[in-house]
Design brief:
The chain is of the alpha/beta class. 34% of the residues lie in helices and 23% in strands. The structure holds zinc ion (ZN). Zinc ion binds next to α8.
Length: 508
């Protein structure tokens, strides 16, 4: 929260005595170089609030100018996608991605650049074959889901039963029908029901003694979708992602009363692996910090260009630009590229646990995951601080942030462990190309799907947001205590989904 305040102080950086009553405190300049040029152009005579507002505009001008004249996003994403590609944690590609981004942080002149190791449950895709054997032989467009086990030698064969969206009520209606069969579920929420993660659907299928889960994507294009399907261990039954078209074909056969049987054979590698988060800083004057994060790991089928090459590039470019403009913020700006997100937020959980003592010093965590054209911001809770951000967004009107501020909270991202610890969370509200979700977690998530103008705008936006939050003498957003977190989770109906993962009720 930021109180309206009367102020009379000497602005250290401008050397100006400022007197006034301001409904909104505007931060002092952060970048000395930018600030000096402003003094030379005559801003000293302006009223205090105006001086600060002009200093903010100068910072924004420096950031946007640097991004649009020196962006390295395209070349960095090309390297990450074409020379490394998919990068699951614990794999060689994952390690290469960590080393690449560590080198870039060092080259950009960041400080405290290092990798923080952690252990996690790892999974790697092996040979896979999935086919319909009756009523006709059809090779399926299908992939194994993350953390799914190997089948016994020779594979398994079973009939298929349609379980709708795979909600518990739908399974209950089918009773013993599911036992020993492949449960065919399509992604999405049944009317009036909550959207369930594929791991939750698999859990219900396993409770009903299904032979396995065939999880159908809603997106067209014969693009089966992968994704994590169990947490921290091998799932109790096999899980397979299948294309929308194959799922619809099976459904049409079942509606005609045909007995559809599927044969599945797969072999996957599992076990504990070592991974690491990549960390870098722009040091501030206080012990507080703003954390700018994104997950670096990506599914192995494609190149992880959208998920999450976009967020990774935004974090790297924001770091580069803020060093380039000579930003000297009050609070440290810490950049963290998390591994293990796709495997169950392993990197961010490990980071939040290892840094529990200093989480109270975190002014805000800004998370970028599949971020595109910036349209506004989501501040999870903290409605009382919206005024500060409304004014900030008004100063950034050239970005055309048409959807403004939302205070809804969400989960399933690296912000989650921080949210549950009470750290203020901000994510950009943004838009990727209309077809981006078609490629999500598929083999088609590749470099050519990215629109660089969107990413450059997002990098400038996130850099500016981080710098403004790090430049105020005091924090704008207060941490939530246990009651505050509980109220936020309840208000946003997130308790049931969190409970499934053992993350709720929250231990304080
Ligand atoms: Zn992601």
């Amino acid at each position: 929260m930021y109180p309206a305040r009367r102020f009379a102080f000497v602005c250290i950086l401008c050397g100006t005595i400022i007197l006034g009553i301001s409904p909104v405190w505007l931060p002092p300049p952060a970048a000395c170089r930018v600030n000096e040029s402003r003094n030379a152009s005559g801003a000293v005579g302006l009223a205090g609030a105006e001086v600060h507002r002009q200093a903010r505009r100068d910072r924004l001008a420096a950031i946007t100018g640097e991004v649009f004249s020196g962006s390295e996003i395209r070349e960095n994403l090309r390297t990450l996608c074409d020379e490394i590609g998919g990068r699951l944690s614990g794999t060689r590609n994952g390690r290469q991605a960590r080393n690449l981004t560590e080198r870039l942080f060092n080259r950009y002149g960041l400080e405290q650049v290092h990798q923080e190791l952690f252990a996690m449950f790892g999974w790697e895709r092996g040979p896979f074959r999935c086919e319909i054997v009756t009523p006709h032989h059809v090779a399926m467009h299908a992939v194994s889901l993350g953390n799914t086990p190997s089948t016994p030698p020779g594979g398994i064969e079973a009939a298929v039963v349609d379980v709708g969206h795979g909600n518990p009520a739908e399974f209950d209606d089918l009773g013993h029908e599911v036992r020993g069969k492949f449960a065919l579920a399509v992604s999405g929420a049944m009317p009036g029901g909550r959207w369930m993660h594929r791991s939750e659907v698999l859990a219900v299928a396993a409770e009903h003694a299904a032979a396995g889960l065939l999880y159908q994507t809603r997106q067209p294009g014969h693009l089966p979708m992968t994704g994590m399907c169990w947490k921290n261990e091998v799932s109790p039954i096999p899980g397979v992602g299948i294309s929308r078209e194959d799922g619809e074909w099976i459904r049409r056969q079942l509606e005609r009363g045909e007995n559809v049987r599927v044969r599945l054979e797969m072999s996957n590698l599992t076990g504990e692996v070592e991974s690491a988060n990549v960390v870098a800083e722009i040091p501030g004057r206080s012990n507080e910090y703003v954390l700018v994060g994104a997950h670096l790991d990506a599914w192995d089928l494609g190149q992880g260009a959208l998920d999450n090459g976009t967020g990774t590039m935004i974090v790297l470019e924001a770091a580069r630009v803020l060093v380039q403009i000579g930003a000297t913020p009050e609070a440290t700006i810490r950049f963290v590229l998390f591994m293990g997100e796709e495997s169950g937020l392993c990197g961010s959980r490990a980071y939040a646990a290892a840094h529990a003592d200093e989480l109270p010093a975190c002014r805000a965590m800004i998370n970028c995951d599949m971020t595109g054209m910036p349209l506004g911001i989501r501040i999870m809770g903290h409605e009382a601080a919206n005024g500060f951000f409304e004014e900030l967004l008004a100063d950034m009107h050239g970005f055309e942030l048409t959807v403004g501020i939302s205070n809804r909270a969400g989960i399933y991202g690296d912000h989650q462990p921080f949210l549950l610890a009470g750290v203020p969370i901000i994510t950009p509200r943004s838009r990727l190309e209309d077809d981006a979700w078609m490629y999500y977690h598929t083999s088609a998530d590749t470099f050519d799907k990215v629109t660089f103008k969107q990413l450059n705008l997002a990098a400038a936006f996130v850099a500016a947001l981080a710098l403004e939050l790090a430049s105020t003498p005091e924090r704008i957003l207060e941490h939530l205590d246990g009651n505050g977190v509980r109220a936020l989770i309840e208000k946003n109906n997130l308790g049931e989904a969190l409970s499934f993962w053992g993350d709720w009720p929250h231990e304080e």
